[in-house]
């Protein structure tokens, strides 16, 4: 079975719809979302409703938890805090209630799914081989998939070797048949790897392969929505740089 993996939508309807349209051109049987449907972007309700319609599995991320009130805003940057407070004010209560039903991880599949990491599903940014090594020690699955960092990455530990990792670009494909893996599909709604296109990953559970994909979307439309909502300009500007 092939599965589409998406993460970190962040209220960016334009990017999410573009990714869903791209997924529809593949034979992916299900879409799995690793969380952070809301935060930063200006269309949280639209993104939650798209996830409710299309995602077979959906996790909760730290921004989702902030909007539901389950996580303090003290740990957030100023821009993220402003966006979370605004999102709390404007979201439909039924969608907030649905966010409250989500978990930060799912260990009931053939691969482990976490918003942030197997060690800390809410907060840990896995951006180095050292942290990946610690996560590989902690994880219960040979292959785990994480989001949160907004950077498309793969880490592998082959038998008797230390973990190594590298960034992943659109079109990259890996054979996962050997070794232990920690994979990040990148961010749909706010990439931070220098590529402003929306990111997602196609996982083939039978062939044991992963392919990273990038999709153009209406960045100007997403930026205009952020500015119309009077959210910080920096949240709009960064979309144009993939940072």
UniProtKB/TrEMBL annotation:
CDD domains: MPP_superfamily
Domain of life: Bacteria
SUPFAM superfamilies: Metallo-dependent phosphatases
Location of the Calcineurin-like phosphoesterase domain: 1-206
Gene Ontology molecular function terms on file: phosphatase activity
GO cellular component, one term: cytoplasm
Family: Belongs to the metallophosphoesterase superfamily. YfcE family.
Record-given protein name: Calcineurin-like phosphoesterase domain-containing protein
Protein's organism: Capillimicrobium parvum
